[in-house]
């Protein structure tokens, strides 16, 4: 495994929105134009006729919708003559306001059609009007000349497209929503888990892995996977002290440790195929980058995705003349401040190299390679660079000190 391709994404509270492309009909147009659009305001307002590119106020939009008899409540009797919107009118009004006011720069955007899901990052908090029609990119299965003419738009940097067949769990049901705009922020972990093998909210590390087998899942194998993953937290804690001992390995293999010491939790949809999401609280008082990378490395090891020798070779601590251990094999804290990334990778590589034999012994005893093979266990490997940077998702690479 190339550790330089493994990223740990940081969730900083950005909201997640599903914006439908008119039943998926305009999904290619969204990508081709680097936008999201909504047609709801076009029925009532033409910025060209109004001779202004300014977005109408919420009050003006409300009045514009009220002017259409199709959206006027004529059934509810009130003592006043104040006109009200009916259900369809209220829905249209709130969808327009969500688009204009609530979707912000940096928010995650999800759009989809019947076969795939497309994920991007909003690049502008301010909506804009455009009368330039957007053509779709080439589709080998279609010769349509359909153009997207919706005028109200926001800029989006579109990242990977993921097959809907590979999506399980709560998102699968949420994607059935018929609203043009749906707030998916409650499902941010599921969305990040589609994109990245690891992500953090600064208090916990999350690990996303995918079960690819379509055969019936053997109960012994899946239980052994969860056992291995739950051990990762304890192993990482011991590894951060400097050295794993034979006594510690025996205590793991013989299940001698207090179960209350294991804090990893799991959410699994292990149908065939399916997904496993794990959560581990980060240790307090330790260097954050170091803790994240050690936990991530051990999770990769205990799910059979890489080896300690591979990690040590790629992180290559031998290039440095600085030895980060004291004579007693404990971490020298002078080289690893509470914050920052200096020396983190060198120390991580040194830990992997120094403990590789015992880590591999534990992996062999726990049958990690067999479990990975039987379940066809993989981690997300999408090209996500366009989603990252100044106006997108912040990431740390496993084999680099650069944020």
Written account of the structure:
- The protein contains 12 helices and 16 strands.
- It is elongated and about 80 Å long.
- Strands 1, 11, 12, 13, 14, 15 and 16 form a 7-stranded mixed beta sheet that branches.
- With 403 residues, the chain is α+β, with helices and mostly antiparallel strands.
- Helices cover 33% and strands 19% of the residues.
- It has helices at 27-33, 47-50, 58-66, 87-102, 170-174, 188-195, 219-239, 246-253, 288-302, 308-315, 344-365, 368-375; strands at residues 7-10, 16-19, 35-38, 108-112, 116-122, 128-129, 134-135, 147-148, 152-163, 181-183, 198-200, 204-211, 265-269, 274-281, 377-378, 394-397.
- The two termini are 21 Å apart.
Q: Cα distance, first to last residue?
A: 21 Å
The chain-level structural class is alpha+beta
- The total count of strands amounts to 16
**How large is the radius of gyration?**
26 Å
Query: How is the biggest beta sheet arranged?
Result: 7 strands, mixed
Query: What do the pLDDT scores average to?
Result: 88
Q: Low-confidence runs (pLDDT<50, min 5 residues)?
A: none
Number of helices: 12
Strand content: 15-25%
Q: What is the domain tally?
A: 2
Percent range for helical residues?
Answer: 25-40%
Order of helices and strands: EEHEHHHEEEEEEHEHEEHHEEHHHHEE
- Tell me the overall shape: elongated
Care to give the gist of this entry?
By secondary structure, this protein is of the alpha+beta class. It contains 12 helices and 16 strands.
Top keywords for this entry?
403 residues, alpha+beta, 2 domains, seven-stranded mixed beta sheet, 16 strands, 33% helix, 19% strand, elongated
């Amino acid at each position: 495994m190339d550790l330089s391709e493994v990223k740990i994404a940081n969730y900083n509270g950005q909201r997640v929105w599903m914006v439908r492309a008119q039943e998926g009909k305009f999904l290619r147009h969204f990508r081709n134009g680097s936008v999201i659009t909504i047609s709801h305001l076009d029925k009532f307002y033409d910025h060209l006729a109004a001779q202004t590119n300014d977005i109408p106020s919420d009050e003006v939009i409300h009045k514009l919708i009220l002017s259409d008899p199709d959206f006027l409540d004529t059934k509810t009797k009130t003592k006043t003559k104040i006109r009200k919107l009916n259900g369809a009118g209220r829905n249209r009004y709130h969808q327009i306001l969500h688009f204009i006011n609530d979707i912000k720069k940096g928010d995650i955007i999800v759009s989809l059609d019947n076969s795939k899901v497309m994920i991007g990052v909003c690049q502008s908090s301010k909506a804009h009007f455009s009368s330039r029609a957007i053509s779709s990119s080439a589709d080998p299965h279609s010769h349509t000349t359909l153009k997207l003419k919706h005028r109200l738009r926001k800029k989006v940097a579109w990242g990977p497209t993921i097959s809907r067949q590979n999506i399980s769990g709560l998102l699968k049901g949420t994607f059935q929503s018929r609203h043009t705009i749906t707030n998916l922020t409650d499902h941010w972990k599921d969305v990040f888990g589609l994109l990245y093998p690891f992500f953090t909210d600064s208090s916990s590390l999350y690990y996303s892995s995918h079960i690819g087998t379509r055969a019936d899942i053997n109960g012994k194998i899946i239980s052994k996977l969860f056992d291995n993953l739950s051990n990762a937290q304890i192993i990482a804690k011991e590894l951060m002290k400097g050295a794993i001992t034979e006594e510690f390995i025996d205590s793991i293999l013989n299940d001698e440790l207090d179960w209350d010491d294991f804090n990893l939790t799991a959410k699994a949809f292990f149908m065939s195929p399916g997904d496993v999401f794990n959560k581990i609280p980060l240790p307090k008082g330790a260097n954050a980058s170091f803790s994240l990378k050690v936990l991530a490395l051990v999770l990769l090891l205990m799910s059979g995705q890489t080896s300690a020798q591979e990690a040590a070779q790629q992180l290559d601590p031998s290039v440095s003349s600085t030895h980060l251990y004291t004579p007693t094999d404990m971490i020298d804290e002078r080289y690893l401040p509470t914050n920052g990334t200096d020396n983190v990778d060198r120390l991580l590589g040194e830990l992997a190299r120094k403990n590789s034999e015992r880590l591999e012994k534990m992996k062999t005893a726990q049958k990690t390679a067999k479990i990975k093979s039987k379940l066809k266990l993989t981690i997300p490997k999408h090209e996500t660079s366009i989603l990252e940077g100044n106006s997108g998702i912040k990431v740390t690479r496993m084999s680099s000190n650069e944020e």
